[in-house]
Amino acid sequence: MTDHGLAPWTDDLSARERVREVATTLTKPRSVEWVREEAQVSAWQTAKDELEMLVEFGQIQAVDGDDGHTKYAPNYQLRYFTELTELINTHTRADLREEVAAIQDDIDEWKADFGVESRDELESTLTDDDLDSTAIRDRNRVLRQWERYEDNKRLLKHVFALYGSAYEPNSGPNDLSN
Predict the structure, then answer these.
(1) Contacts of 171 by beta carbon, 8 Å cutoff, 6+ apart
(2) 30 has which bridge partners?
(3) 104 in Cβ contact with 92 (< 8 Å)
(4) Model-level pTM?
(5) Could you give the CA distance from residue 60 to residue 126 in angstroms, rounded to a whole number?
(6) Which of 90, 51, 62, 60 is closest to 78 using CA atoms?
(7) What are the φ/ψ torsions at residue 62 (nearest 5 degrees)?
(8) Distance from first CA to last CA of the chain, Å, rounded?
(9) Residues 144, 156 contacting (CB under 8 angstroms)
(10) CA of 98: how far to CAs of 34, 92, 104, 105, 127, in Å?
(11) What is the pLDDT of residues 139-175, one digit of tens each?
(12) Tens digit of pLDDT for each residue in 66-89?
């Protein structure tokens, strides 16, 4: 048993499956050794072979690391399109429109609460002399959430653009009407 102990997620998975699980959830570039340790795989070559296969199939990407060694990073395009597909397949247009309205409600509330017109304008108030550390932390929290909401709105804009062609029940390879 390793220092970490065997986590429950490893119980029914082979070494290669564990490498895939770790590699497909990366959030930043990582070395073979890092993935090997996280996946609790004893053979470095097994981890390397599996990572190279994932690169070949476009699941992750190989990038040059700061140390001159190859690192393995998320395939952000694939993740983005997977998220688009998930939203299209699990939500109606009405649900998604309501989500956009809810996001905008929160943004409008922040604009009113802080007397600003944009996220950048709110950020510029962080150095105001009359703010204490609690107020600055509150604004930082709102800024992070506001940024996530703007990202979500961009994502939803793309979902709306693709929704019809991706979800038309009658569309298919022989349907030229769409």
Answers:
(1) 165, 178
(2) 72
(3) no
(4) 0.62
(5) 38
(6) 60
(7) -95, 130
(8) 58
(9) no
(10) 42, 10, 10, 10, 35
(11) 999 999 999 999 999 999 999 998 876 555 544 444 4
(12) 888 999 999 988 889 989 999 999
Residues 6+ apart with CB under 8 A from 24: 54, 59, 60
| 170 alpha-carbon distance from chain centroid | 31
Q: Distance between CA 34 and CA 58 in Å, rounded?
A: 20
Q: How far apart are CA 72 and CA 61, in angstroms?
A: 6
Dmax (CA) of the chain: 65
Torsion angle defined by CA atoms of residues 7, 39, 29 and 142, in that order, rounded to the nearest 10 degrees: -10
For residue 81, count other CB atoms closer than 10 A to its CB: 13
Please give the structure tokens belonging to residue 18: 């564990």
CA distance 26 to 78: 13
DSSP 35-74: HHHHHT-S-HHHHHHHHHHHHHTTSEEEEE-TTSSEEEEE
How far, in Å, CA of 49 to CA of 57, rounded?
13
Residues 6+ away with beta carbon under 8 Å from 133: none
